[in-house]
TrEMBL record:
PROSITE patterns: ADH_SHORT. It comes from the Bacteria. GO terms for molecular function: oxidoreductase activity, acting on the CH-OH group of donors, NAD or NADP as acceptor. Transmembrane segments: none annotated. Belongs to the short-chain dehydrogenases/reductases (SDR) family. Keywords: Oxidoreductase. This is Oxidoreductase.
Amino acid sequence: MSTSEDAVHGLVVAITGASSGIGEATARLLAARGARLVVAARRVDRLEVLADALRNDGAAAVAVTADVSRREDVQRMVDTALAEFGRLDVLVSNAGISAIGPLGDGDVAGWQAMIDVNLSGVLYGIASATPVFRRQGRGHFVTTVSTAGLKIVPDMGVYAATKNAVRTVMEALRQESTDGVIRTTSISPGFVNTELDGSITDPVLREQIRSSMDSFGLAPDAVARAIAFVIEQPHDVEIGDLTIRPTVQN
Ligand code: NDP
């Protein structure tokens, strides 16, 4: 397929949580296929390195420092897409943290942080991008949820709850959008080898997750390819849910 025939070519895609892991891999893959990127996260140094690399490879890319738990930051990211590229085709709401631990630990601050980033961050994206998608007559919300919401296990209760709340919101949005303007997709990855363990404070739990990621976690690029797959479908084809896990994961 020549580049100009690629359905991803020319799309304007904003990605939250693009400074590492799945978000960064998705930005690199989509940029290589000719998408125009707005990459967002808090670590400006990492974002600038990424945006420079994408531009050096010939892509159009702009970095936005944004904390998705702040409504105005998410709005600024969407506004930047419009200012730089005149439109926004896809919002990949991928930023997330995993402050996991037993409920009995009562880590209220960690629970609130997960709600603020994993759930409110996605809601702010919907609030900011929906008017744009409606004006354009089309747009696509892609969110990174988790198999942790499909198979409930100890220590991941609040994390899974935030992910399943997003899944619920996406299904409601789908049902409210059957006029064909807005597509919604929830991607559920299993273990992926990223920096997500960095938000786990319990050292034993953190080591367990790190060890699973290292021994059988998917490369982030595998999830990036899944995201590209849902985006590249013709607009009348909506892949609502996609689960992607290591073959050996139970
Ligand atoms: P990483 O930790 O590598 O990436 C998380 C990204 O989210 C980083 O870019 C981080 O950037 C960003 N982020 C965190 N908090 C905020 C915030 N408040 N505002 C803006 N950006 C933020 O992990 P992954 O790539 O694995 O995580 C990506 C998504 O995939 C998450 O939603 C995660 O829950 C989900 N997921 C991951 C799985 C895994 O096994 N790795 C499995 C299932 C789902 P910065 O710190 O610079 O802000």
